[in-house]
Every structure is written in structure tokens, then in C-alpha cells.
């Protein structure tokens, strides 16, 4: 058994794909007997130390230098104290491996600890290099250099898809790397419930999408596709984010305000309800590192229409367990959705195949992969010691 520090860019009480991934991994590693802690970035909320699912979580400050004089002065004042906090966390756990999940300020401090303490480093990327809404890795030379440094010194690097690894290889100098995908609970013990504003009239067909309402998620592309379809086709877009006002205005401008529904952020029970009641679930992202939503469609029995921009090639087989389409081709996206809605036989075949495909994406499988990596990187270090 090993002592593992999961060094996460974000964690509970915040929600998202990375937070979900790390929470499941931490829980299962702990259940298998490993001594696990989650070290995550304090966003100024001063949450201190908490216990989530029986796992200790430390919220650590992670300031970084910036370009303005004021920011540089603030960094000079705050970085020494932050570094001491990270070192105290290290001394408490004395981890056998540092596992950075989604590289950000957490990765900078994790890499510094690796260099100072000579502990194996594993870096797992979840598409942050291209899917970050603020485009940090496109405009910050510090972030680019820090990631390049981490990839060069890490004993192992994983990506949630081949698409993610290819980006690390092309832009950040990664050599090698392996895919460790996302997972999903095969069964969910929650009672499902429909989200608010759910269209319920007879004869209505419902297209569902959900996630962070940001430009790269492509919900505007989905609205444009639905606008080309008949008045019996409604769309539910769950979630919240900076793009929501623009999406609501676009729906009005397209003349579909009466059949475009924005229920806001969905609870787990509402996600289950929306998926199980959907006539088709669409992931219209301009870029998608993996797409846990696709796995949720598979588990919940909704026919899937999946973006071709990203990691879909790793797990969705076009025409078998989903339809893969370029969402920026409005005609193609409209046609794919219409095929599912008008061909019950196709929809059923997609759902039946997906119910088999989803079995290969359990959290146990994800943790099996990580444990194998830990064994590879920790044992040589122990032998040297």
C-alpha cells in the first residue's frame, strides 16, 4: 500500500469533471487500503482541512507571479507562506507519489515538491491546455513553461484521451504518455427527477445537453440546429456559466424561445432524470477532452450524438454506440439529431450497444490503471533508497 497525494486543480465543494474524477479516485484508492490525501487550491475561501468521503482534503494557497507590478509585489509577499503550507502538507503525509490532476497552480507547487523532496511525480491532464475558458495556456508563458517542466521531470504522464496526449506532445514537448480515461458509476442509487422547465406536452421530442455554459461547449451550435427542426422538437440545456445570457438571447433571436429551456445547474438526480427522459442527448462541444456526459448518456439509456472535435475517437464508435458529427456543420448536426428522432430502430440499436460499451469505463478500471502506474514509479525509487 502507498501514500498518495492527489494534487488537484479543483475539488469539492466545486463541481465539474475533474472534481468528479478526483473524488472517485480518492475514494476508491482509500477503500483499497492506500493512505490518500487530496491537496487542492484554496480559491480564497480559506476552507483549511476537511474530510470528504473519509479522505482528508487540504485546501492550500497557490499564488503565482503575474505581469503587473502590483501582482508581482503580492506574489513576493504571499508565495513564501504558501510554499511553507505545501511543505507542511508534505511532512504530514510523506507521500510515496505526487499525482497532479489537471495542471494549474497546483501543478507548479507539486512539481516544486517533486524537485525538493525527490518523490515520483505523475501528471494527469484532462484537457486543461485547450479547454480552459480563460485560455491560460494560450496566453501565459509562465503556465506553458511550468507545464513543459513538469512533463519533462514526471515519471509518468496520462491523458483522459489520445486527443489530450497529442496536444501535450505537439505543443508542450511530451514524450510518451498513456491514456487513462474517465469513468462512471455503473449504477446510481439516487432516485431520478426531471429538472424544472421540462417540456411535457404530448408529441414533443426532447433534445438534451448539459454542462458548463461556455463558448467551447457549443450549446449555441445546438440551438442553431434545433432551430432548423420542427416545432415539436424542444431542447433542454442544463447548466450555468458566463454564456447563459447569450444563449437565451440567441434562442429568442432564432425564434425558438418557447421550445428552448434553460433549467440552470442540475443536481445529480436531475441529470439522471433528464438523461432517462431524453429522446436524444447531444454533446456539441467545439472541443471536448473526453466527455463524461457521453458516458452518462450510455448509462442512462439515451441515444448519443457526440462531437467529433476531441476524444470521442477513443471510445465512441460512429453508428454503433453513438453518432459522431462535426457540430460546427449545422446541417450535419441537424441531420444526425433528426436521424435519431425519426428512426426508432436506430435509436434502440445505439442504446443497446452503448449499454455494453459503458461497462468498460468503471471507476475501478481507472483506479486499476493508476495503481499500476504507482507500482512502476514508486518501486524503483524505493529500491534506490
From TrEMBL:
InterPro entries to which the protein is assigned, alphabetical: Glyco_trans_1, Glyco_trans_4-like_N, Glycosyltransferase_grp1
One GO molecular-function entry: hexosyltransferase activity
One Pfam family hit: Glyco_transf_4
Glycosyltransferase subfamily 4-like N-terminal domain location: 16-187
Gene3D superfamilies according to UniProt: Glycogen Phosphorylase B (3.40.50.2000)
Top-level taxon in the UniProt lineage: Bacteria
Glycosyl transferase family domain sequence ranges: 204-354
One Gene Ontology term from the biological process aspect of the record: carbohydrate derivative biosynthetic process
Alphabetical keyword list: Glycosyltransferase, Transferase
Matching PANTHER family: SULFOQUINOVOSYL TRANSFERASE SQD2
Protein name, entry field: Glycosyltransferase family 4 protein
Species name: Nocardioides agariphilus
Upper lineage: Bacteria, Bacillati, Actinomycetota, Actinomycetes, Propionibacteriales
